[in-house]
Each structure stands twice: as C-alpha cells, then as structure tokens.
Specification:
Elements lengths: L4 E4 L5 E5 L2 E5 L7 E10 L5 E12 L2 E5 L5 E4 L6
Length: 81
C-alpha cells in the first residue's frame, strides 16, 4: 500500500510526498488541496484483500489522482480506489 505525507509551506503551498514522488499544489484557488483517499478492496468471499491509498491533489475543480502503481489521472470526475 502506498503511503503519502502531507506538508504545507508557510506560503500555503501544499505537498503530497510519497516514495519517489512529490505533488505540489499552489494556493491559486480556494479549493487548492492535497489529501489521501483510502479504500479496502474485498474478495469475492467478502474478506478484505488489499488496502488501497491514492493521493489526490485538487485545484479549481480539477483533480489529480496518483495511484500506488504509478498511474496518474487528471479529471473533474470524483473517483474512488
């Protein structure tokens, strides 16, 4: 499971820091944010199989989803792991 640390600079710039990755969002809009989205993927038998964490950066209604496998998605859609 990927893990990310959230940092905020004195000027309000927000960062999501993970293994070999830094995503920065400048405070250009009121909704500028960096956060994590978590889920537990279940197996057919109802047992928890995998914990999933995505890093999400949002600015002016556009979201950047960083998935633990290296994929990036840029969209206005709401997505869940």
């Amino acid at each position: 499971m990927a893990t990310y640390e959230r940092l905020v600079d004195d000027d309000g710039t927000k960062h999501g820091v993970g293994e070999g990755l830094i995503v920065s969002v400048f405070p250009d809009a009121p909704d500028a944010e960096v956060f994590q989205r978590h889920a537990v993927r279940m197996g057919i038998d109802g047992e928890a199989r995998e914990r999933v964490t995505w890093l999400v950066a949002r600015l002016a209604g556009v979201k950047l989803y960083v998935m633990g496998d290296g994929r990036l998605v840029l969209t206005k859609q709401e997505m869940n792991p």
